[in-house]
Amino acid sequence: MNRPSHHPGDTLLIDYAGGALCEGASLAVATHMAFCPACRHAVAEMEAIGGALLDDLEPEPLSDGCLEALMARLDHERPAPCRPAVKPSPETSCYPEPLRSYLRGRLDRDGRIGEGGWRFLQPGMRCMDLLSGPNGTTRLIRMKGGVGVPQHTHGGIELTVVLEGGFSDEFGAFLPGDLAIGDPSLVHRPVSDPEGCLCLATTIGGLRLTGPLGRWFNRFVKF
Amino acid sequence: MFPLNGTMQDQHTPAADTAPGLEALLVAVGRERDKQAFGVLFGHFAPRLKTYLRRLGCDSSAAEELVQEVMLLVWRRAETYDPRHASAGTWVFTIARNKRIDVLRREQRPEIDPDDPALVPEPEESADRRIEAKESSGRLRAALKDLPPEQAELLRMAYFEDKPHSVISAEHGIPLGTVKSRLRLAMERLRRSLKDVG
Ligand SMILES: [Zn+2]
Predict the structure, then answer these.
(1) Which residues on chain B are in Cβ contact (under 8 Å) with A101?
(2) Which of A41, B20, B87, B117 has the highest count of CB atoms within 10 angstroms of its CB?
(3) CB-based contacts of B174, cutoff 8 Å, min separation 6
(4) What are the residue ranges spanned by the domains of chain A?
(5) What is the pLDDT of residue A220?
(6) What are the beta bridge partners of residue A173?
């Protein structure tokens, strides 16, 4: 099986491993990781760094009684089962975790994303919102074959992971698992491959700063 | 008190780590519900977790409450801990990170499922390049101490401020290119320490 050739890169993976990325961007990075053993390995290394940084922190003593209070709670814990409970068999799904959990109830009998629930964006292009919040939306985008997105820039930093099919733009060909990073300085004109394209697209939250610094930042931020 | 019988998977590890025993303690909690072992783990991790949560903006009492929640998860999930995959510190870090995202940001933490058959597998030649967690954690801590201060400082911000590196750049007035290159340089050095054997 092919492995992706467009990766989030170390700095975005550190954001993910440290927990700074918002949920939507984390979903995009983790979905890429399901396709990408190299980035899984990198995140494991970065979590080890998190562990070492935690160990290195100056300890701050807890108030008296914290441990005792917790120990008392342990007495009320049910004894742990010998093995972790067997997970209930998931509905048939063609998509890996963590994406699978976000698609619950939206799949057809073959485990693919069904025809219902899509919104029209432009001819040949539809979308389905998965998450929306103050940080922007995380959505699936489905394009028919050979559809061109009008030349555009991005309001914030956008992450796009290809799930099926593919697209190409000035930066190369994007196939399943590939993660594309779009930022406000980037002008591009993606065109979907002949078989069409299904992707997950999201914005990195926390970037829309207000005030003069934010405006300056929003104009110059680059990935 | 701690199971030092032949069933432990990491017997080959020399006892040269700087924090000996945390892994064995965690295994003891998982296998025997060993409260004494849990008390020792609490003594080590709870005050560090408190500092972690304080840096993330919790006041003292909120931090202590959350520390207790994290340590309760450590107790409940200790059975799933595998010392071959992560040091005790790394495992506790991931639990604390996910819990604080849940409680402080009210967000879920999307993660792969390592047992998911849909995962694209590693190429065969690299299937055994798994980090030898216990041996490498001591070297990693040493390498962290050797990082140039500006790299170490940025790394701490990245892990302890709940802000993506692009926001750190904007808020601290450090050009984004500088932030990225410092983080990458730090990663390079730390990766080398993880790969060193012996
Ligand atoms: Zn990757």
Answers:
(1) 110
(2) B87
(3) B154, B168
(4) 99-218
(5) 39
(6) A168
